[in-house]
């Protein structure tokens, strides 16, 4: 009690509620302690006296005695809501009610509830000391409140309870012990945990993966991962503040991290299709160190497919339809009246915005739109058509968008174009899903453009439209296809056929030979190349 009511250096975490509880239990406030008196008066609401609230005591002796001050109402958020239970009554009981009440079939009995108390916290000295110690330590070190929600924090509390009565007594770890011995111990513990992921690198190797990103403070970082047969491991994260990001600087950084992993362990370098990454890969390919030069660069297949879908949606005869579809989706999703009306018909699926997914967002938006075609028609022109027409919009701009949605959804020719675009993008999106999942990637990238052409044969397209689509497909397949893909295609047991080697001058064979020569460090037209 003295900890909170003493004049000199009282508890910095005390509140008016704590002081009020202590005074209620018999605590005395020093008349000269203005700070404590102000906390108590502010909590009990004496400051409201001048504004029409409770009058402050006129007698000075009463004002000095905190026990005579009025007790405040329950604090907002701490009072327990009162709720009543209906009790059936007879007509006779209702007839004898007071004049202030009206007769009815039920009477409401208000249950008395008490204000939430902090008595348990005040009476438990051990809990109070622990909470104060934790608060002072966390606030001094700037530790987030979410730290208390971690499983490791609960494990720390359990450990303290276990060793509380241990002999000999335990002491708090020192600064030097924590930054030397314990840091090495935790490092070895983490290293032991990831050993199962890295043990297979000696036999099957790993893929070196890197990509740029930003942290929570919007600082640029470069993440480096190594993915093996057992899974991926984060090797290191490099902050790029003040660093150069040209090809030469990135190449030097890549090589430094690759040597930490082990050059002989790395099977390939895997990045997105940024131009700086391509140049960095070309620099590594020209290195005199054979262990570095042999590592091939493989662009992200999922990123290539996503760019292909984006380019297909930008075709002149496609982009207007995509823009209209985007307007319809945003208009329906952004207004509660329209979205609620649609979900009242069928709430199994909602429309998808293009920004809600990362890869293939345009395809997913159009595919979901075609799936909801009947629901949208029912909303604007079916049983709910009257409700749609009854909607009123605040401005002319919104009314024009509502009219656009109304006439577009009722247009069968527009839906035919949407279905055609979805059919074109479907094969590309299926490959994207195969690329963006765990496991072995498909090995048929060499003939992927032919596969797209065969699937498009079932789609009704004009000659110019078919040529536009295939030009985009061939450009991105060429971007994605590398010599390592040609070698993987020829070595795939499911497609191993001597007929592929009947034409040594074909692009497939030549690219595979280029990859094999790079692995053994042989030049083109050299004796190893000719023997191969």
UniProtKB/TrEMBL annotation:
It comes from the Eukaryota. Residues 49-69 are annotated as: Disordered. InterPro entries: DUF659, RNaseH-like_sf. Residues 174-328 form the DUF659 domain. Residues 52-65 have a biased composition (Acidic residues). Pfam families: DUF659. This is DUF659 domain-containing protein. It comes from Chara braunii. The lineage of its organism: Eukaryota, Viridiplantae, Streptophyta, Charophyceae, Charales.
């Amino acid at each position: 009690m003295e900890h909170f009511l003493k004049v000199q250096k009282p508890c910095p975490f005390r509140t008016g509620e704590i002081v009020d509880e202590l005074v209620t239990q018999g605590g005395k406030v020093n008349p000269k302690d203005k700070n404590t008196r102000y906390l108590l008066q502010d909590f009990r609401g004496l400051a409201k006296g001048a504004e029409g609230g409770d009058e402050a005591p006129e007698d000075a002796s009463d004002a000095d005695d905190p026990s005579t001050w009025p007790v405040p109402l329950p604090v907002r958020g701490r009072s327990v809501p009162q709720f009543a239970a209906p009790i059936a009554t007879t007509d006779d009981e209702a007839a004898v009610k007071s004049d202030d009440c009206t007769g009815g079939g039920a009477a409401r009995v208000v249950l008395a509830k008490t204000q939430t108390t902090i008595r348990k916290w005040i009476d438990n000295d051990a809990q109070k000391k622990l909470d104060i110690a934790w608060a002072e330590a966390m606030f001094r070190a700037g530790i987030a409140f979410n730290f208390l929600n971690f499983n490791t924090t609960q494990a720390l509390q359990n450990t303290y309870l276990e060793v509380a009565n241990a002999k000999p007594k335990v002491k708090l770890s020192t600064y030097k012990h924590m930054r030397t011995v314990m840091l090495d111990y935790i490092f070895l513990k983490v290293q032991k945990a990831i050993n199962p992921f890295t043990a297979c690198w000696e036999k099957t190797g790993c893929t070196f993966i890197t990509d740029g990103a930003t942290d929570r403070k919007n600082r640029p970082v470069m993440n480096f991962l190594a993915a093996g047969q057992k899974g991926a491991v984060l090797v290191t994260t490099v902050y790029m503040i003040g660093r150069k990001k040209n090809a030469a600087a990135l190449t030097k950084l890549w090589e430094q991290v690759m040597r930490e992993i082990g050059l002989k362990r790395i099977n390939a370098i895997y990045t997105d299709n940024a131009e700086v990454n391509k140049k960095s890969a070309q620099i590594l390919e020209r290195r005199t160190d054979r262990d570095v030069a042999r590592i091939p660069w493989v662009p992200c297949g999922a990123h290539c497919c996503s760019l292909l879908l984006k380019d297909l949606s930008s075709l002149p005869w496609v982009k207007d339809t995509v823009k209209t579809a985007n307007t319809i989706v945003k208009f329906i999703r952004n207004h509660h009246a329209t979205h609620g009306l649609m979900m009242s018909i069928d709430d199994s699926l909602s429309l998808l915005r293009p920004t809600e997914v990362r890869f293939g967002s345009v395809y997913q938006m159009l595919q979901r739109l075609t799936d909801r075609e009947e629901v949208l028609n029912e909303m604007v022109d079916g049983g709910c058509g009257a409700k749609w027409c009854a909607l009123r919009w605040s401005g002319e701009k919104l009314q024009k968008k509502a009219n656009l949605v109304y006439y577009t959804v009722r247009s069968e020719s527009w839906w035919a174009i949407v279905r055609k675009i979805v059919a074109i993008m479907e094969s590309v999106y299926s490959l994207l899903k195969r690329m963006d999942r765990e496991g072995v990637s498909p090995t048929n990238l060499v003939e992927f453009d032919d596969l797209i052409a065969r699937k498009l044969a079932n789609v009704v397209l004009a000659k110019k439209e078919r040529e536009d689509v295939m030009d985009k497909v061939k450009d991105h397949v060429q971007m994605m296809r590398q010599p390592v893909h040609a070698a993987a295609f020829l070595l795939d047991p499911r497609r191993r056929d001597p007929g592929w080697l009947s034409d040594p001058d074909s692009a497939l064979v030549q690219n595979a030979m280029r990859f094999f020569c790079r692995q053994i460090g042989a030049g083109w037209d050299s004796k190893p190349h000719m023997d191969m």
